[in-house]
Design brief:
2 domains, Hypothetical Protein Pfu-838710-001, eight-stranded antiparallel barrel, alpha+beta, 51% helix
Length: 490
């Protein structure tokens, strides 16, 4: 069966007309231009999609092609999946062409109905590199579902023959000049999002077994974090929900935590380039999200402050951050660093720095090597020293977030103890967010003076509850200390 291997990249509007003049494209064949109309089908209850399949009819000029796609794997915009195609004489589905036994038996193909369309102009070049031959495609158009639409502006790089690494190498050449961002959300997925009036679905967390090697588990969790990054970035632009950006930065922190969790198999020089990319992304995001806890807490968590105070603070800071986000989205370095991370993972570049010891550790079962990094992180917390000091608590925010991530990663390996620790750490994280918000708002003297007396009293009452929040966090940390000590000693 045929396998489609392609890299999907979102293209910023400012670069649509300029990218066609990139010198790399001049080395390929003369560009072909054509219009593609695609009709997607599923059962009324979307059983095909639930099982990871998609069926469409594509029209290009007078040519009609029926395509079946199956669920595959994806990493940083690189999609690898089953793809079968059949020419059609008429624009009606011919389900008899689908091989028997390929689809689940409970899918009634007689009930397939058209759901949405993707219609776009495609400009296509064929490029040959030292390692592969591939197509570069520029797609511009729309996904349509009834009266609802969403734009298409992306570059697809599809492997015709050769090494898939060439897809990343070509994309990295393009991102030296143009703002291209890896995108794990397909055109079909965008259609179902419109159809179901839903947001971007989350990545599926890997289920790591106790028998998995350290290296296999590392690949699984890093691939999950990369896909999560791209989906969060796309989800923010689709929903304008600031929570996605906060989670984006947390995911960068999770990647750093993974380097600690799997440090036994990673030589220090093996993570230098990946760490540089993570640090660049984090440093650019941090200033824009500095106000996020305050905005979120006032608008979502604190019921006492009036809506006007919440809206005023949120709007002022959000508009400033949105301007900076737009600037970041137009920077080629943003997509370049995301692609660099993906290439590092796909090519397993850390293995180039393996010593005899790290190579041996990489093959160790994760159940035999996981508790020491958790213990190191736990000892670094020293929660008993925080007490009623806000700064002491906030200094530990990243470590707590990292430990929570470790527990979520390993709960299938260790079991109930890790699940309990994860839940407790997430409760502690929620307290951290509220403390951070209170700390920010308490320093907004000029802004507070412009509010009404009633609004000032409401916000001051909320910020003075810091002591109550810290008391609850201290009580929780004591319970955690006893539980964690027992787990580490087991």
């Amino acid at each position: 069966m045929a396998q489609e291997i392609e890299l999907k990249l979102s293209l910023d509007d400012q670069d649509r007309d300029r990218i066609v003049h990139h010198p790399l494209l001049a080395t390929g064949t003369a560009p072909q231009k054509f219009f593609l109309r695609n009709q997607y089908f599923d059962t009324p209850d979307q059983q095909l999609t639930r099982h990871g399949f998609a069926i469409r009819i594509r029209q290009q000029g007078d040519q009609l092609i029926q395509t079946l796609k199956g669920r595959g794997t994806q990493l940083s915009g690189l999609h690898q999946r089953l793809e079968l195609e059949w020419p059609l004489a008429t624009p009606e589905l011919d389900c008899s062409l689908i091989p028997a036994g390929l689809l689940p038996a409970n899918i009634d193909l007689a009930t397939l109905v058209p759901l949405f369309e993707t219609n776009f102009d495609r400009t296509q070049w064929e490029i040959t590199t030292a390692d592969a031959s591939l197509w570069i495609m520029l797609d511009e158009g729309r996904v349509s579902c009834g009266e609802k639409e969403t734009p298409i502006s992306e570059v697809e790089i599809e492997l015709h023959q050769g090494d898939p690494i060439a897809l990343f190498d070509v994309a990295l050449q393009l991102t030296h000049r143009f703002a291209l961002v890896p995108n794990d959300v397909s055109k079909a997925e965008r259609g179902f999002r419109l159809l179901n009036n839903s947001s971007v679905p989350k990545s599926r967390p890997p289920v790591i077994t106790a028998e998995a090697s350290l290296e296999t588990a590392f690949e699984q969790v890093m691939a999950f974090e990369l896909e999560t990054l791209h989906r969060l970035w796309e989800a923010f632009h689709y929903t304008q929900n600031w929570t996605h950006l906060h989670q984006f930065r947390n995911t960068l922190g999770n990647m750093r935590t993974n380097f600690l969790l799997f440090s036994k198999m990673l030589a220090p020089e093996a993570i230098v380039e990946a760490s540089k990319a993570i640090d660049w992304l984090d440093n650019r995001m941090a200033p824009m999200l500095h106000w996020w806890p305050a905005c979120y807490a006032l608008s979502q968590q604190a019921s006492e402050p009036p809506r006007s105070a919440s809206d005023q603070l949120h709007q002022l800071k959000a508009l400033q951050a949105l301007d900076r986000l737009s600037e970041l989205q137009r920077e080629p370095e943003f997509g370049h660093h995301l692609l660099s991370l993906a290439r590092w993972l796909f090519a397993k570049e850390w293995t180039h720095h393996h010593t005899d010891d790290t190579r041996h550790q990489a093959q160790t079962q994760i159940s035999q090597a996981l508790l020491e990094p958790v213990k190191q992180q736990w000892l670094a917390l020293q929660l008993d020293e925080c007490g009623g000091n806000v700064s002491s608590w906030l200094e530990r925010q990243q470590i707590i977030q990292g430990l929570s991530h470790i527990c979520a990663t390993l709960e299938h390996v260790v079991g109930a103890d890790m699940t309990r620790m994860r839940d407790e750490l997430q409760s502690l994280e929620s307290g951290m967010v509220e403390l951070s918000a209170m700390e920010v708002v308490s320093k907004l003297g000029d802004w507070l003076q412009n509010l009404s007396t009633e609004e000032q009293q409401s916000i001051n009452s909320w910020t003075r509850s810091q002591t109550v929040v810290m008391r609850n966090m201290n009580e929780l940390s004591q319970r955690m200390l006893m539980g964690m000590t027992a787990t580490m000693s087991a």
